[in-house]
Write a structure and sequence with these properties.
heterodimer, A: alpha/beta, 15 helices, 6 strands, B: alpha+beta, two-stranded antiparallel ribbon, 6 helices, 8 strands, globular
Chain lengths: ~300, ~240
């Protein structure tokens, strides 16, 4: 395969590829542009939910922090968000907001600028949503029937605050969402054999940096199988998200990923997949050829 | 004549049961062409079919929002549709709840609120679009030359001013996406004349279209993306998120 040449076939993207395609560094974006070209990039509702959970929701969370009347300026809001919450929780939102406000020329220490900053942030949140839906093709296939994946953000800039509040409340209501989904049956019935196989493989594998992710997934799957799915929650689902994506992927498509756990998962499931170098590797050492593998 | 100065924010919104124009004046942050930008809104109202209209009534709040200027004998007032009423309604009817001024005209016209709002938004937008396209033309001819900066600067001012004057104009969403792609790390100097020409065509075509909806806005943003303008240029570390 020629480096940078478009890879043929249907491309199914894991969240670890979706995120850099949406907002990675220019070098990394160009790398994926070389891989996918103008071909359709497929995602599942579950991948979209993961993107929303990890990225869009944190942007909305920061929007409401910025709205707080107790925080006078943009700088106050950013300082509060970075000091008050775990570093990773709002890191991406703070990175985006910082760059956005700088580009728009807002004064970080002026209270006058806050409404303008809120408007700009709302506009960009809607733009992210729009771009996602126009960049990726949703397969519509979601055997877990994830209820969070069905919650839609309606684009309404005039009523952004109300819309964000509605969306956030529905999305964060994990108890209701869990009661509607069938993640337990997904692992304990539909893909029981594959899940058991993953558990077995994870136990047999030696621990190494390359297998840590897969072994953790194996442990979680074991708990799910032991309890017949009773321990399933949105949080646990997040821990086994890679397994959900790999199991639910169309076997005729190539699953593109950066996460190492897919190497073992796809081998167990005999899924055609392509492992891409990390952003750091591409930025530091230049683009390298993706490792294309066909399962076992 | 009704005039709006640059820095004046006009949000014309159409809700299910409410047609409302709100006017918030503030200090002008920037000026276009060094002179105050003046826009005729009266023309917009005339275009909507309610000539000499000077007041929009919001019965829910029992208040009137009036533009400064001499109130000419008004013949019709725009009122919100009730839930039972159709989207199109007759104006100039004597029995109209929102009727406030003068006598009813004998002629009856059917207008929709959406048409009025769209017309007003487009009229507010029109002079800015003219300047914007003129800037893009000049930028196209000055790519790679230091004088390009002057045209880019003007372009930025036009976009910023329009986004303040008419923030809820769907066209502004596309312009701000275009702005971000140019302003981020001064990437405006990386784009070619051909790309600017294509952006001109996209923005010109979009400005001519009535009733810009989300779908058209999304299409236009993606057209800019296809040309090469990164409308979400903000870079984030991929390991930053909590999954």
């Amino acid at each position: 395969m020629i480096l940078g040449a478009t890879v043929p076939g249907k491309h199914f993207l894991d969240t670890s590829v979706v995120r850099p395609v949406m907002h990675g560094t220019t070098v990394y974006k160009n790398y994926f542009q070389g891989v996918f070209g103008n071909n359709s990039k497929y995602v599942s509702p579950f991948v979209e939910m993961e993107f929303t959970r990890s990225y869009l929701v944190s942007l909305i969370d920061f929007y409401f922090i910025l709205r707080l009347p107790t925080l006078d300026t943009i700088a106050d809001a950013m300082a509060f968000a970075s000091n008050q919450y775990r570093a990773s929780k709002l890191k991406s939102a703070l990175q985006l907001a910082g760059q956005l406000f700088e580009v728009r020329g807002f004064q970080f220490n002026s209270s006058v600028e806050k409404p303008r900053a809120l408007f700009a942030l709302a506009d960009v949140i809607f733009r992210v949503h729009t771009k996602f839906h126009r960049t990726f093709t949703n397969t519509g296939r979601d055997s877990t029937r994830c209820a969070r994946a069905t919650i839609r953000l309606n684009i309404d800039l005039q009523n952004a605050e109300a819309e964000f509040r509605r969306f956030s409340e529905l999305f964060e209501d994990t108890e209701t969402c869990r009661s509607k989904c069938s993640i337990d049956r997904f692992f304990t019935r539909r893909h029981k054999k594959m899940a058991e196989k993953c558990v077995q493989e994870a136990k047999e594998l030696k621990s190494s940096p390359d297998t840590t992710g897969f072994k953790e997934i194996g442990n979680h799957l074991e708990k799910i199988l032991e309890t017949k799915g009773k321990v399933c929650s949105c949080r646990l689902c997040g821990n086994v998200g890679d397994a959900v994506i790999a199991l639910d992927c169309d076997r005729e498509m190539t699953l593109h990923h950066v996460d190492k756990s897919f190497n073992q998962l796809c081998a167990v499931m005999n899924q055609l997949h392509s492992k891409h170098p990390s952003e750091t590797a591409v930025v530091k050492h230049g683009p390298t050829e993706p490792e294309k593998m066909s399962g076992e | 004549m009704i005039t709006l100065e640059a820095g004046t924010r006009v949000g014309a919104r159409v809700d299910e049961n409410l047609l409302e124009a709100e006017e918030v004046t503030g200090p002008s942050r920037s000026s276009v062409s060094g002179a105050t930008q003046r826009i005729s809104v009266a023309a917009a109202v005339m275009l909507a079919g309610s000539a000499s209209q000077t007041s929009w009534v919001n019965p829910n709040k029992s208040t009137e929002y009036s533009f400064p200027g001499k109130p000419v004998a008004a013949t019709s007032v725009l009122t919100p549709d009730s839930e039972q009423e159709p989207r199109l309604r007759e104006v100039g009817n004597q029995g109209d709840e929102g009727f406030r001024f003068g006598k009813a005209r004998s002629t009856k016209m059917k207008i929709s609120k959406a048409a009025v709002t769209d017309s007003v938004i487009r009229l507010i937008r029109a002079p800015f679009v003219g300047q914007l396209l003129s800037c893009l033309n000049k930028i196209e001819g000055a790519v790679g030359d230091p004088r390009c900066a002057a045209h880019i600067d003007k372009l930025f001012v036009v976009i910023q001013t329009l986004s303040e004057v008419s923030p809820y104009d769907p066209y502004v969403r596309v312009l701000l996406a275009f702005y971000d792609s140019l302003a981020f790390r001064n990437r405006w100097c990386d784009y070619s004349a051909r790309e600017y020409k294509q952006a001109y065509e996209v923005l010109n075509h979009l400005a001519e279209q009535p009733f810009l909806n989300e779908s058209r806005v999304g299409e236009a943003i993606m057209e800019l993306e296809k040309i090469g303008f990164s409308t979400l240029p903000f870079e984030m570390s991929v390991d930053a998120d909590d999954t």
